[in-house]
């Protein structure tokens, strides 16, 4: 039975700058019960290795998302006509104890999965994706390890930081592979660039079978060819999509903790996100938006737009699946 739908506040009636900020001006609801897609924030940046601030991401992305209208300009998809979507708020994550925070995030996502909704979240730093993946993986063990489509300047498959610490935003996907949460042969990382600690820094990931598409390769081939490869690699198997905002060039997304010059543009990001159509997506996120380093809200607006593109792909895929 279809679930009751929600519509954003109409900006033609009540101006965008008025009212409480929620994701896409959707209703704020107490739980994910009755939703197809739960929009949520994970305001935690305790895994950040450089400049912090992504804990403030969800609130600012909510604010900027008031600009997003209800219909996709290219596909004509009106996601709120196809999916029951609302803002379930932020996970209650304390900022002091990383182990406790990871537990709280996993429990929060497990709850959303148990309520039958797909989590579409805004971080937070990229370590927040690890407990999200753990929860989604456990929610349906029969499904097996998940695929991953990762837009990012960084591979995030390092091993240890600051001595012997296994949990930072530079390590989540190594941990997820080790834990059997992700299937490395169905992982693709797009936009990888920047100086490294050692020439073989990405070798461990490559040895596991992770497909790393550097920004140089992306520049040669373009978004359409790259996404055709991604779709072939993922086929119909369950996959998670994670969008680190630092994949985009810092001239267009300066508000982030670990900027790397020479990234893809916002337009290329949109083209790639539209290329996710047809994938079996089991969850998605936008991470590493850090408002204290933002200029004029441009990075938060980019994050909000990425969130909308993801939502529209989910709606499109739902329609194709019938
Ligand atoms: Mn990352
Ligand atoms: Mn990154």
The coarse overall form would be: globular
Tell me the CATH superfamily: Ureohydrolase domain
Counting structural domains, the number is 1
Q: Ligands bound here? A: manganese (II) ion
Mean pLDDT: 97
Any low-confidence stretches, pLDDT <50, length ≥5? none
Largest sheet: 8 strands, parallel
Measured by DSSP, the beta-strand proportion falls in: 15-25%
In the CATH scheme, what's the topology name?
Answer: Arginase, Chain A
Instruction: Please write the string of helix (H) and strand (E) elements.
Output: EHHEHEHEHEHEHEHEH
The CATH C-level class name: Alpha Beta
Number of helices: 9
Q: Quick one: how many beta strands?
A: 8
* Range of helix content: 25-40%
Level-2 CATH architecture = 3-Layer(aba) Sandwich
Describe what is shown at a glance.
The protein is of the alpha/beta class. The chain has nine helices and eight strands.
How would you describe this structure to a colleague?
- The chain is an alpha/beta fold.
- It has one domain (23-320): Ureohydrolase domain (Arginase, Chain A).
- It has nine helices and eight strands.
- Strands 2-1-3-8-7-4-5-6 form an eight-stranded parallel β-sheet, with helices on both faces.
- The structure holds manganese (II) ion (2 copies).
- One manganese (II) ion (MN) is lined by residues 126, 152, 154, 156, 244.
